[in-house]
Amino acid sequence: MLSKRQLEERKIRQERILSSALEVFRSKGIDGATMDLIAENAGFGKATLYYYFSSKEDVLLSIMEEGWKSLLDSLEIIIQEGKDPRQTFIKILVQTAHNARQRPNLYEFLFQAPKAINITDSREQNWKQYQGRLYATLKGLLEDGIKQKEFPQLDSSLMFKAIGGLFTGMIFLGDKNDPVSEKDVEALLNKLITIP
C-alpha cells in the first residue's frame, strides 16, 4: 500500500508529464508529438512515462479529460446558484475566460484539439462527457432564456455555435492584458442577438 506522500508524489509526476506533454503537443502538433519527446520534456525516462500512460493517445486523452473536468468543476457553483438564465450564461463565459487566462495553453488546446483528434482507441473518451455536459448546460440556459424572453426566438443550437465561435475568438485573439468581463460578454451578446 502506498503512503500518502507516495500518492502525492505520483500525482505530481503525472501532472508534470501532462504539463510537459501539452507543451510538446503545442510545439510539434498532435501528429508530431512522440512519447520520446514527452518523456524528454518532462525530464523522465520512457519507463516512467509508460508506467503512467500506455501511449501518446492515453496522454492526450488524459489532458482532455482533466481539462474539461476542471472547467466543469469550476462552473458548478455558478450553475447551481444561477436563477436568471442570461446572467448565469454570462457568468459561465466570464469564468471560462478567467480560467483560460490562468492556463492559456491548456484552454487553447481544449478548444482546438477536438477538431484534430482522430483516436480510434477503444478507451472511453471521458472528456467528451464533460464537454457534452457543459455544452448541454449552456444550450439549456439559452433555451430557458428564450422562453423567458432574455434571448430572441432563435434556434438555440445555431445561437450556441455563433456565440461559442465569437467567444473563443475573444479569449484567444483578444487583448491578453485586458480580462474578459461581464460587460464585454453582455456587449457581445447585444451585438450578436438583439431582443426584438
Task: Name some characteristics of this structure.
196 residues; mainly alpha; Arc Repressor Mutant, subunit A; Tetracycline Repressor, domain 2; 2 domains; elongated
Short structural summary:
This protein is mainly alpha-helical.
- Percent helix, as a range, is over 70%
Total strand count, please?
A: 0
What is the tally of helical segments?
9
Runs with pLDDT <50, length 5+? none
What is the name of the CATH topology of the largest domain? Answer: Tetracycline Repressor, domain 2
The end-to-end span amounts to: 64 Å
SSE-based structural type: mainly alpha
Tally of structural domains: 2
Return the CATH architecture of the largest domain.
Orthogonal Bundle
Indicate the overall shape: elongated
Query: What Rg is obtained from the alpha carbons, in whole angstroms?
Result: 19 Å
CATH class of the largest domain: Mainly Alpha
Mean pLDDT rating: 85
Q: Helix and strand succession? A: HHHHHHHHH
Question: Sheet bearing the most strands, described?
Answer: none
For CATH, the homologous superfamily of the largest domain is named as Tetracycline Repressor, domain 2
Percent strand equals under 5%
Describe the structure.
The protein is mainly alpha-helical. The protein folds into 2 domains: 1-53, Homeodomain-like (Arc Repressor Mutant, subunit A, Orthogonal Bundle), CATH 1.10.10.60; 57-192, Tetracycline Repressor, domain 2. 78% of the residues lie in helices and 0% in strands. The chain has helices spanning 4-32, 35-42, 46-52, 56-81, 85-102, 104-116, 126-147, 156-173, 182-192. Helix 4 (56-81) runs antiparallel to helix 5, helix 4 (56-81) packs parallel to helix 7 and helix 7 (126-147) packs across helix 8 (156-173). It is elongated and about 60 Å long. The N and C termini lie far apart (64 Å).
